[in-house]
């Protein structure tokens, strides 16, 4: 598996991964409101890396370097649980300065477990009654 910086040529595949992954796993959200354009809106000004194998994009991470903050981590649903997310998190950590933060929606128990298994710690739960999330830190 190869991890590299994404280019605009990769964006069509990244848009599909973002949309498909969110529609499959964000059971608490209205999937009808999700669009391909969300990827562009939700990654403005972010550094984006991707994982690929045999020229096929398997997932991506986007982060905001000035704040050492991982904003997005998404893997194609058919590659979930195969180490793609772990490699993307490791590559993200190597690119930023510690401590590194992220927010994980409280309802997303699968993601929460993934991060905790990879050394992240819950700091505080924030948000409103419609969408609570945990601020997590990696030191």
TrEMBL record:
Residue span, N-acetyltransferase domain: 1-139
InterPro entries reported for this sequence: Acyl_CoA_acyltransferase (IPR016181), Bact_Acetyltransf (IPR050832), GNAT_dom (IPR000182)
Range of residues in the leader sequence: none
PROSITE patterns noted in UniProt: GNAT
Source species, domain of life: Bacteria
Keywords recorded for this protein, A-Z: Acyltransferase, Transferase
Name listed for the protein in its UniProt record: GNAT superfamily N-acetyltransferase
Organism annotation: Paenibacillus eucommiae
């Amino acid at each position: 598996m190869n991890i590299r910086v994404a280019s605009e040529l990769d964006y069509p595949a990244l848009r599909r991964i973002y949309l498909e992954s969110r529609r499959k796993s964000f059971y608490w959200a209205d999937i009808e409101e999700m669009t391909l354009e969300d990827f562009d809106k939700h990654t403005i000004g972010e550094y984006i890396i991707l994982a690929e194998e045999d020229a096929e994009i398997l997932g991506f991470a986007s982060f905001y370097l000035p704040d050492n903050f991982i904003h997005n981590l998404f893997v194609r649903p058919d590659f979930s649980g195969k180490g793609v997310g772990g490699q993307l998190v490791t590559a993200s950590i190597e690119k930023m300065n510690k401590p590194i933060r992220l927010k994980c929606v409280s309802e997303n128990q699968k993601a929460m477990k993934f991060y905790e298994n990879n050394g992240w710690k819950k700091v505080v739960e924030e948000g409103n009654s419609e969408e609570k999330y945990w601020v997590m830190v990696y030191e």
